[in-house]
Amino acid sequence: TPLENIRNFSIVAHIDHGKSTLADRLIQSTKTVADRDMKEQMLDSMDIERERGITIKAQTVRINYTADDGQDYVLNLIDTPGHVDFAYEVSRSMRAVEGSLLVVDSTQGVEAQTLANVYHAIDADHEIVPVLNKIDLPAADCDRVAEQIEDVIGIDASEAIRVSAKTGIGIKETLEAIVTRLPAPKGSLDAPLKAMLVDSWYDSYLGVIVLVRIMDGQLKKGDRVRMMQNGSVHHVDRIGVFRPAMTEIDVLGPGEIGFLTASIKQVRDTRVGDTITHEKKGTDKALPGFKPAQPVVFCGLFPVDAAEFEDLRDSIEKLALNDASFSFEMETSAALGFGFRCGFLGLLHLEVIRDRIEREYDIDLITTAPSVIYDIHMKDGTVEQLHNPADMPDLTYVDHIEEPRIKATILVPDEYLGDVLKLCQDRRGMQLDLTYAGSRAMVVYDLPLNEVVFDFYDRLKSVTKGYASFDYAMIGYRTDALVKMSILVNDEPVDALSTMVHRDRAETRGRAMVEKLKDLIPRHMFKIPIQAAIGGKVIARETLSAMRKDVTAKCYGGDATRKKKLLEKQKAGKKKMRQFGKVDIPQEAFISALKMD
Ligand code: GTP
């Protein structure tokens, strides 16, 4: 395809503003997929993505469109994740395209992730076409939202397209705008091959699939190519495009987006952002690379049944094949036995991986408290990175502890502002800015990441009845008075429940945790003390009294099936518990105990 007839674009939006629905409609109205094969959310391929309605990996589709000018165009859409944990993936896929559709829900207006994502598009020098979606709804207020886009984002919204991705209004106008308002890609057919490695993932039939954007030159099936970062050479055995199903073709030219396979074994052998060129007569000028995404949240994953450790290893290794931002290493815990310490981009990423292990590999897991990375400055001048509170060195050798901080941007309707400020204040936040965007406040806070990783987002949603939106970026480390708090159940420390807390909050947190644990741990035949301690000092204590009756007693003896069912249920419940000394602690205790109210 000649360059003038190609348009490459992405869609940026806040979660739920209709990005996937719009993508579906563009695919459907251009007959890219026959109506009978059309299912909702074409681009969200993983089950979990579909269920949770979130897009995680970048997905691509090539759309053929005959425009009003009579010419045939190829439109390549790269769909990017909308969630804050995956901001990094958004920013890198943006570098592969020239323009963006900025989708804003016309009943809601600009949200925190609209801002974060549109800034990625602006950084990538995109031409941006604003799209006001959901105009079929009575609450749509296009004029107000257009004005807000101009005020808050600072881009011209006078020609924003009014769309209902649901009913199909404005879809034709959107396709025309892509052709007339977004620039064609640049590139040279005769120059040496320069292809950007945009993404890669593992496919059980084809091995590693590499998503590429051709900047210059041509890529053909059978070519020998070199990855410029590590110099490895590969024989290209397939190239093709996504319609959105993978379709093989013979050649990809400048400006085009497609895939290649080359018998590559592991996703780790492909560096996102790398430049791919020909082995012979290749370019010697690599594209500017991207920084790899760093995990920021760590937690331990342990099998409930110790016999499943090898299965867990297997599942983690398989998942890591496909996700270079997910890190893991083996860990042993006195309480939980063998498991893995894993690193994630954020909490959603953690949940997604945990769900996939439980669901796709059928392994029951105990997840320990998520932790961030602390810099422990030792008295001898060395710095240790602490990923796991259980490994906290002896305090006599510690000079000071630094913790990671984030800059959080929150957009919230005025009436909930007070609650949001209180929440941020309670989480040791420092207010950086407070401005208004129409009737909504935009607050910027400097917050410790460890106060956010756990349940900040849930709390924010609940105090604002779901009206707040949130986005964050890491800003660096700062010293604070942090201590390690241990939990003892029946006088045995449960290392998996150790957490780092601020000294001033230790008592409140400790009390809350032991109270929660008292409710979460079932009664046993004996009394169980539950304590929180810092160093050797107990700061909170509860006692779980001994059990009196047999659970089956209430079944009046008669109904044998009911009794059996109850015992079975009890057994299933047991399966999700682990023994600590003489005490069974249910799996959910490890997460629930840490939630703050
Ligand atoms: P993520 O994939 O989570 O980022 O969300 P998204 O931005 O892709 O939103 P999605 O397309 O899943 O739409 C969110 C919800 O809005 C869905 O329930 C859609 O059916 C609905 N929706 C999308 N477009 C329209 C529209 O034009 N009108 C109406 N009434 N509802 C819409």
Can you walk through the features of this model?
Helices cover 24% and strands 34% of the residues. The chain is α+β, with helices and mostly antiparallel strands. The strands form seven sheets. An eight-stranded antiparallel β-sheet has the order 11-10-16-7-8-15-12-13, with no helix packed on it. The N and C termini lie far apart (58 Å). Guanosine-5'-triphosphate is lined by residues 13, 15-21, 53-55, 82, 133-134, 136-137, 164-166. Residues 4-186 form the Tr-type G domain. Keywords: Cell membrane, GTP-binding, Hydrolase, Membrane, Nucleotide-binding, Protein biosynthesis. It catalyses: GTP + H2O = GDP + phosphate + H(+). GTP binds at residues 16-21, 133-136.
Topology summary:
Elements: E1 6-13, H1 19-29, H2 47-52, E2 59-66, E3 72-79, H3 87-94, E4 99-105, H4 112-123, E5 127-133, H5 142-153, E6 161-162, H6 171-181, E7 194-203, E8 207-216, E9 219-220, E10 224-227, E11 233-235, E12 238-242, E13 246-249, E14 251-252, E15 257-261, E16 275-278, E17 297-303, H7 309-321, E18 327-333, E19 337-344, H8 347-360, E20 365-367, E21 374-378, E22 383-386, E23 398-413, H9 417-426, E24 430-437, E25 440-448, H10 449-452, H11 456-463, E26 469-479, E27 482-489, E28 492-493, E29 499-502, H12 506-520, E30 528-534, E31 537-544, H13 560-575, E32 577-580, E33 583-586, H14 589-592
Parallel strand pairs: 1-3, 1-4, 4-5, 5-6
Antiparallel strand pairs: 2-3, 7-8, 7-16, 8-15, 9-14, 10-11, 10-16, 12-13, 12-15, 17-19, 17-20, 18-19, 21-22, 21-23, 23-25, 23-26, 24-25, 27-28, 27-29, 27-30, 30-31, 32-33
Helix pairs in contact: 3-4
This protein binds guanosine-5'-triphosphate.
Binding site for GTP: 16-21, 133-136
Keywords: Cell membrane, GTP-binding, Hydrolase, Membrane, Nucleotide-binding, Protein biosynthesis
Family: Belongs to the TRAFAC class translation factor GTPase superfamily. Classic translation factor GTPase family. LepA subfamily.
